[in-house]
Amino acid sequence: MKFWLVLMGVAEVDQLVALSQHAEDCGFHGVTVADHLVMPAKFTTKYPYSEGGEWFWPVETPWPDPWVTLGVIGGATKHIKLATNIYLAALRDPFTAARAISAVDAFAPGRAICGVSAGWLKEEYDAVGVPFETRGKRLDELIAVMRKLWTGDAVSYQGEIFNFNDVLMRPAPANPIPILCGGSAAPALRRAARNDGWLGLPMTVADNVAIVERMLDMRVEQGLPRTGFTPVLSLAEPLTMDAISRLDAVGGHLSAMPWLPTPWDVERFTDDGADFSQLQVKKDAISRYADRIIAKAG
């Protein structure tokens, strides 16, 4: 089992490097950062991953560019993986996205992982001038274009949305950059199955296992191997060694934000009344998670 430290919603952006360095020292496999290109001050779209449609972060939460952030973290660490969970790639053009991601790989070779999703916030698409209704098709074509650009060769592409001839982008990654896809709707699961992995939502062990098995079957149906597929999962039930073992059996990795209490906590990794804005509080939580979970799971 491999573990990922989630840095989504950390308002104290000056702490991100120190948290990543500490996670690396404590045995985390990777860190993930999230993305919004712009945040509308007012919107009516419901957040799809909460019961009442409310989101759980303040509107003032900072969203630093994920690939700039991961490049800075990569320069300050040695081996920890650097991933987006998720990157709203369809809000960009494929050239801008591919270049940003390959730049991280150039300075932290073999460590960049591109996690993408079509997104849910219509007002964000409206602000940027990208049609919300075509975001899935746009994302699929964008992934195809990025994979071509990352070869470093002169490439062409003719699609419904993107069309160009004989362009190249360098430096090219020495090895293919894995693309993991988020979302739980049928098109999102098919997208994940034909790429390199899935970025999960909080679910029970049973639901996580079932949905991963479903995507592995989708891969076989598309002529792809069941191997080489990485599900990064989030658990919506108590974190026990049995739960970890069952997720590990389907190749799952597990994401965690140890300082954030959840309704399913068996144990807490922070002290009562702790100020989560403090760097040391977060680092202590990471250390406790590593000692109590990662060390035992290993």
Biggest sheet record: 8 strands, parallel, barrel
Considering DSSP H and I runs of 4 or more, what fraction of the residues is helical?
25-40%
User: Gyration radius, to the nearest Å?
Assistant: 19 Å
Overall mean pLDDT = 94
CA(first)-CA(last) distance: 7 Å
Regions with pLDDT < 50 over 5+ consecutive residues?
A: none
> How do the helices and strands follow one another from N- to C-terminus?
EHEHEHEHHEEEHEHEHEH
What is the overall shape? globular
Using DSSP, what is the number of strands? 10
Bin the strand percentage. Answer: 15-25%
Lateral arrangement of strands in the main beta sheet: 1-2-3-4-7-8-9-10
Tally of individual helices: 9
- The computed structural class is alpha/beta
